């Protein structure tokens, strides 16, 4: 039996084999989707750039030479220099770290919060459900960017507050998804069996319901990543996100705004970085949804 | 004998008038529940802005008067804001204030926030409306074409354009647009709503520059306003186009896989008619919801675009208030945008229910 047959067998003999087999099927379906592959490559490149930023950066992202300010792209300065003579390529490379940290933190705060609240809401039903979903719907029916802006206005500018504000506005979608999944699971026999064994509600939710809701939430988070990056960049552009001299992409565009007519590269280059990375997440999210969620995949 | 009452009840059940009365009763009950949801959502919006304005800042008084205010001003504002009272009482009086149109004073302009908002709102409305017109006029046909040629190169291209709408920062696209179409090609006018020498030439009637200039019969002003408006509106329109095309395509694919479409094709109905006469008709109603949603989304998108284009609308008002830490103005603008957003959302929901017989 080859490895491939072992992975694709209809009757896996161990849990590990079943899991690996499923991952392998997902993988095979994913690599047949060209856009998803492009997306995955872009995100991989982002992670590598962020991890090994000092290796890819050709200059310091923070200190520049004022004699070299506002130079057009050239062999020495790949994407040109900004108004303080800093190399834009190096700043974009270091900016990848900030972008990655923002999306990871927002994902790490909003997704578990939404999962947990949604699972509680769906599992207990009744008034718990009504109150939690009422709050969720209020948040869902509000414009996200405006809400994030108002939160940052109250919390004060800064990257941590930007993350908090974006997380506050993004959990409700995950709560909705988790609740819908929980409702289909709640009355199934294996949950009844776990309950009969004397498991507490918390244990049922944490050990048996949440793991099964995770994959749909992950798809949604991947699709939302582009939105999170855009919101973070928007906050940076307005001067409410990452503060100078941090090489945050949105803030870089904002500084280049004054030179857009003559030194177009200062504002343009960081924007391309945002577009490429956001597109990457969109492509991958779309592909993942087609593969993992055939119901909606057939439609779009 | 026993069959008699049974048949009586069934005929009664089938009597169209009685059935209609039952429907109307259910409709009223649904409407009541619906009104309750809307009221709850608006109350939630108020709770959030209240929370942002009064609870999150360590000292809301400082947020209003600034940290250089003398002690007696501080004390006066503190009592004026009612901060010496319990939180729940503060909330009730806040709701009362908002309902009577009292959003407080703006620190930057020195005027009541509600007046400022009334003055800037038409500019945003004008831009968003032209934006949605562009978005619908291009997005719907693009979605239909993509669906009718599924997996073709056209379809892939439209899909990528749609995804670009989710991944391009609005403020960046605005800058690029200014660079290309204003600075290089000189096809459109630059930032702002009107050239300085046309400013104030036509009397303000509706606040919408295009309408006002037409009322005054001043075509020079009209065309100048158009050349200022077209670029920001087109960029806004691009974002709604992305969403509308994507949803149209998905709805159309649903319809095209139905059996009645196959029947129509087998009958020999020309493909163009199959698509526009048969498959497109049932999706018009869900499309209204989509268009409503993206119209509401444009009000939000206008915040970034207005900042880039120095467009004197509500988004620009909000961002300049943010930068000046003018909390009353920030919350007032948030409240208005939020309320309009919710209202459009719910309205398109109602329209859907009214127009789609299946949802009744």
Question: Helix and strand layout, with pairings?
Answer:
The complex is a heterodimer of chains A (300) and B (360).
Chain A: H1 3-8, H2 15-31, H3 34-51, H4 53-56, H5 88-124, H6 126-140, H7 144-155, H8 159-186, H9 189-196, H10 201-237, H11 249-256, H12 265-292, H13 294-297
Chain B: H1 3-14, H2 16-55, H3 60-65, H4 71-80, H5 87-99, H6 113-148, H7 153-167, H8 170-184, H9 209-216, H10 219-256, H11 259-267, H12 271-309, H13 314-323, H14 327-355
Helix pairs in contact in B: 2-14, 6-7, 6-10, 6-12, 7-10, 8-10, 8-12, 9-10, 10-12, 11-12, 12-13, 12-14, 13-14
The separation of the N and C termini of chain A measures 37 Å
Sheet/helix structural class of chain A: mainly alpha
Q: Could you spell the SSE succession of chain B in H and E letters?
A: HHHHHHHHHHHHHH
Mean pLDDT of chain A: 86
Helical/strand content category of chain B: mainly alpha
What's the count of strands of chain A? Answer: 0
Per DSSP, the total helix count of chain B is 14
CATH superfamily of chain A: MetI-like
Q: Overall pLDDT of chain B, averaged? A: 81
Strand content of chain B: under 5%
- Low-confidence segments of chain B: 1-13
Q: What is the CATH topology assignment of chain A?
A: MetI-like fold
Total number of β-strand segments of chain B? 0
Roughly how many Å is the radius of gyration of chain B?
26 Å
Number of domains of chain B: 2
Main beta sheet of chain A: strand number and arrangement? none
Classify the fold: give the CATH topology of the largest domain in chain B. Answer: MetI-like fold
Please indicate the percent range of residues of chain A in DSSP E strands (runs of 2 or more).
Answer: under 5%
């Amino acid at each position: 039996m080859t490895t491939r047959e072992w992975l694709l067998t209809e009757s896996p003999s161990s849990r590990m084999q079943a899991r690996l087999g499923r991952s392998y099927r997902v993988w095979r379906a994913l690599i047949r989707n060209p856009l998803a592959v492009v997306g995955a490559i872009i995100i991989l490149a982002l992670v590598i750039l962020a991890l090994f930023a000092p290796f890819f950066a050709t200059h310091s992202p923070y200190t520049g030479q004022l004699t070299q300010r506002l130079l057009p792209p050239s062999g020495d300065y790949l994407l040109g220099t900004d108004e303080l003579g800093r190399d834009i390529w190096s700043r974009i490379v270091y900016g990848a770290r900030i972008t990655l940290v923002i999306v990871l933190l927002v994902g790490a705060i909003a997704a578990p919060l939404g999962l947990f609240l949604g699972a509680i809401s769906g599992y207990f039903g009744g008034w718990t459900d009504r109150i939690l979903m009422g709050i969720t719907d209020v948040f869902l029916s509000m414009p996200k960017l405006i809400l994030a802006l108002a939160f940052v206005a109250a919390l004060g500018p800064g990257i941590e507050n930007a993350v908090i504000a974006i997380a506050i506005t993004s959990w409700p979608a995950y709560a909705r998804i988790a609740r819908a999944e929980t409702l289909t699971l709640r009355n199934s026999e294996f949950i009844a069996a776990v309950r009969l064994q004397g498991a507490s509600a918390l244990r049922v939710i944490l050990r048996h319901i949440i793991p099964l809701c995770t994959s749909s939430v992950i798809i949604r988070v991947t699709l939302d990543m582009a939105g999170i990056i855009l919101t973070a960049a928007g906050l940076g552009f307005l001067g409410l996100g990452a503060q100078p001299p941090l090489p945050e992409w949105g803030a870089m565009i904002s500084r280049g705004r004054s030179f857009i007519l003559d030194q177009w590269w200062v504002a343009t280059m960081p924007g391309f970085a945002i577009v490429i990375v956001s597109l990457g997440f969109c492509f991958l999210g779309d592909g993942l949804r087609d593969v993992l969620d055939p119901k909606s995949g057939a439609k779009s | 004998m026993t069959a008699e009452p049974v048949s009586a009840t069934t005929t009664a059940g089938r009597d169209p008038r009685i059935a209609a009365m039952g429907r109307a009763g259910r409709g009223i009950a649904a409407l009541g529940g619906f009104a309750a949801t809307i009221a709850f959502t608006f109350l939630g919006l108020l709770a959030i802005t209240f929370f942002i304005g009064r609870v999150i800042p360590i000292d809301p008084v400082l947020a209003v008067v600034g940290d250089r205010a003398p002690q007696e001003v501080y004390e006066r504002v503190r009592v004026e804001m009612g901060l010496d009272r319990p939180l729940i009482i503060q909330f009730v009086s806040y709701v009362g204030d908002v309902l009577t149109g009292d959003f407080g004073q703006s620190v930057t302009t020195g005027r009541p926030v509600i007046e400022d908002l009334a003055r800037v709102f038409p500019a945003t409305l004008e831009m968003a409306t032209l934006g949605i017109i562009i978005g619908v006029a291009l997005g719907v046909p693009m979605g239909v074409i993509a669906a009718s040629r599924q997996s073709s190169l056209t379809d892939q291209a439209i899909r990528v354009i749609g995804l670009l709408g989710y991944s391009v920062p609005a403020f960046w696209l605005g800058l690029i647009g200014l660079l290309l179409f204003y600075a290089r090609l000189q096809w459109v006018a630059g930032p702002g709503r009107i050239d300085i020498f046309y400013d104030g030439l036509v009397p303000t009637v509706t606040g919408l520059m295009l309408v006002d200039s037409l009322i005054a019969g001043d075509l020079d002003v009209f065309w100048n306003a158009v050349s200022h408006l077209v670029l920001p509106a087109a960029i806004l329109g691009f974002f709604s186009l992305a969403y509308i095309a994507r949803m149209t395509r998905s709805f159309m694919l649903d319809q095209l896989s139905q059996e009645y479409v196959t029947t129509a094709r087998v009958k020999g109905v020309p493909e163009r008619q199959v698509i526009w006469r048969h498959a497109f008709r049932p999706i018009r109603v869900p499309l209204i919801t989509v268009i409503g949603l993206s119209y509401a989304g444009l009000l939000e998108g206008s915040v970034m675009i207005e900042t880039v284009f120095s467009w004197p609308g509500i988004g620009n008002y909000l961002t300049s208030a943010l930068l000046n830490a003018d909390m009353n103005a920030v919350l007032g603008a948030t409240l208005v945008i939020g309320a309009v957003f919710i209202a459009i959302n719910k309205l398109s929901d109602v329209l859907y229910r009214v127009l789609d017989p299946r949802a009744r």
